[in-house]
From TrEMBL:
Protein name per the record: Substrate import-associated zinc metallohydrolase lipoprotein
Natural source organism: Niastella yeongjuensis
Source domain of life: Bacteria
SUPFAM superfamilies recorded: Metalloproteases ('zincins'), catalytic domain
Length: 293
């Protein structure tokens, strides 16, 4: 089973707790999944059923279950008031726009069937945080949901648009992995930036990555993530935002490489999936702007 992660670089100190053999574990019957964790169906469950499960056979788990997560991480459950705004936004920005461009049968076939929702970020030892993971194309973990605020929610300020774009960047990135795992991008993709991929990507910057022909510093990590970072950034930034990034690049070689990758992404979507990427890009960006402006 393939597992992909998307990271965001931050500076951090990690604090780890240990458990001794003699520690009192309490009543294990209250551990989720071992009994004692039943609850009455509420408005959130009904919304998930009506909006995701019935039309797309998709479920979202928001009740806390450490068994779904990495045991060596300190994580926070999602706030219940965030669940419907988050999943509703995901539906309008991601699911609905792919349905409009590729059709409902396409989305029902390739959409991950199981979302696990987490309130906080997942911190890593190397100073990065995990924003999301996709496993086998069927299970997606989404983090940092407690920071999600859209226009109209209490406390929203324009700077919150960063967190909104960050979440959709994660979604589009992970779905890009599902697509290329199903039908691989052209082998020529790997030759565009041969020799420039690095495991030390997190010690660089987006600006330096742009000069080398990568759309983000994380795109430098390997060809697969280079490919899906292009998809994600082109969709979430929209045509104008993407062109704005390219306008800052001083390296002719770097800009040329990004143009090659852009062309290959557009052709991949058309030739493999029959999707007009420019139309999907415009729809996606319009939907994001409805949430933040």
């Amino acid at each position: 089973m393939l597992k992909h992660k998307i990271y965001l670089v931050v500076l951090a100190l990690a604090i780890f707790a240990s458990c001794k053999k003699e520690d009192d574990l309490g009543d294990v019957s209250q551990i989720p999944g071992l009994g004692g964790d039943t609850w009455a169906t509420g408005p959130i469950d009904k919304w998930i059923l009506d909006s995701l499960t019935t039309p797309f056979n998709v479920s979202a788990k928001y009740k806390w279950d450490q068994g779904e997560l990495e045991f060596d991480k300190t994580l926070t459950p999602p706030k219940e008031e965030k669940i419907i705004p988050v999943m509703s936004s995901i539906k309008s920005v991601w699911i609905d726009n792919y349905v409009k461009e590729a059709g409902k049968p396409f989305m029902m076939k390739y959409i991950p069937k199981w979302f696990v929702l987490v309130g906080s970020a997942s911190w890593n030892i190397d100073g990065t945080i995990t924003l999301g993971t996709a496993e086998g194309g069927r299970r997606v973990l989404l983090y940092v949901l407690n920071d999600f605020r859209i226009k109209g929610m209490p406390g929203y300020v324009p700077s919150d648009s960063f967190n909104i774009k960050q979440m959709f960047h994660t979604i589009e990135h992970e779905f890009g992995h599902i697509l290329h795992q199903t039908v691989l991008y052209p082998q020529e993709w790997k030759s565009i930036s041969t020799g420039d991929y690095t495991s030390d990507w997190n010690n660089t910057t987006d600006s330096s990555a742009h000069e080398k022909g990568f759309i983000t510093m994380y795109a430098q990590s390997n060809p697969d993530d280079d490919f899906v970072e292009m998809i994600s950034m082109m969709l979430t930034e929209g045509k104008a935002g993407y062109e704005g990034i390219l306008s800052t690049i001083t390296s002719t070689t770097g800009k040329s490489k990004l143009r090659q990758k852009e062309t290959m992404v557009v052709s991949y979507f058309k030739d493999v999936w029959g999707i007009d990427f420019a139309s999907l890009q415009q729809r996606t960006r319009n939907s994001i702007e409805l949430l933040i402006k």
